[in-house]
């Protein structure tokens, strides 16, 4: 899709690379972050892509529709997060849109939850997001405008019984989003989240296997997994002026899972 809805805007996507595996028939592995960067670019934005592996960010930039920049950022390192925001802002003189997409999953329930797993999940899923927002916020306040979009998960509002650290940090991420929205609304800064359900992303295929797609689709009322491109379209909407009177909200993109009780019949 191409449009000019974001023409002239500058966007920074934290977690905009992808390390596969690719979907069948893809030559470029598409995860949520990469799809978001591509969509924002297609709608006219200059996009700075941050990833832990610079080559992954560069691969995304190579496929953008317009100008962009790849920056290396380790989400577990606060100094690296701040440096990446500074580099992104310096590249184009400002940041109008910041998308915090980076995240890691966990596998441990309460009984066996470890401090190490909890700490890493908090560092990446929460701290990197508020540090990134904190670093980008002054420029937005000076400009009197800006939009944050946090890429969350239904694990932040519903429990899968699978990973305490993931569920807790995804819930905390939404609290960060709401704080920014309420605190800075009067100064022109909006903050929202897309809350994703079963998405056929590179991370999901890597963590749970591509062969599990049919099983994952069975719990979705729509009968299929979502796509990274559909996640990206929701992000682009919240980042645009079409969502100009929306802030502090969690847009649930889950094919109806959170609306169903107890399990959608198939």
TrEMBL record:
A Pfam entry, by short name: adh_short_C2
Superkingdom as given in the UniProt entry: Bacteria
A GO molecular-function annotation: oxidoreductase activity
Keyword annotations: Oxidoreductase
InterPro entries the UniProt entry points to: NAD(P)-bd_dom_sf, SDR_fam
Family assignment from sequence similarity: Belongs to the short-chain dehydrogenases/reductases (SDR) family.
UniProt protein name: SDR family oxidoreductase
Source organism per UniProt: Microbacterium rhizomatis
């Amino acid at each position: 899709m191409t449009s000019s809805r974001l023409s002239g805007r500058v966007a920074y996507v934290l977690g905009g690379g992808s390390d596969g595996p690719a979907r069948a028939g893809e030559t470029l592995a598409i995860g949520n972050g990469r799809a978001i960067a591509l969509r924002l670019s297609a709608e006219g934005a200059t996009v700075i892509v941050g990833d832990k592996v610079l080559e992954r960010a560069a691969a995304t930039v190579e496929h953008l529709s317009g100008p962009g920049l790849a920056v290396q950022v380790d989400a577990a390192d606060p100094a690296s997060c701040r440096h990446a925001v500074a580099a992104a802002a310096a590249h184009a003189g400002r940041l109008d849109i910041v998308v915090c997409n980076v995240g890691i999953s966990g596998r441990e329930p309460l009984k066996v939850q470890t401090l190490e797993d909890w700490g890493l999940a908090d560092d990446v899923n929460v701290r990197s997001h508020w540090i990134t927002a904190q670093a980008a916020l002054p420029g937005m306040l000076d400009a009197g405008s800006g939009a944050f979009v946090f890429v969350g998960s239904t694990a932040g509002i519903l429990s899968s019984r699978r990973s305490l650290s993931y569920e807790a940090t995804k819930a905390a991420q939404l609290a960060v989003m709401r704080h920014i929205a309420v605190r800075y609304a009067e100064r022109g800064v909006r903050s929202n989240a897309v809350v994703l359900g079963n998405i056929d992303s590179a991370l999901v295929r890597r963590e749970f296997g591509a062969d599990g797609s049919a099983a994952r689709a069975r719990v979705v009322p729509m009968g299929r997994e979502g796509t990274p491109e559909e996640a990206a379209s929701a992000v682009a909407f919240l980042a645009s002026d079409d969502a100009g009177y929306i802030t502090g909200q969690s847009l649930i993109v889950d094919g109806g899972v959170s609306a169903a009780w107890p399990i959608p019949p198939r």
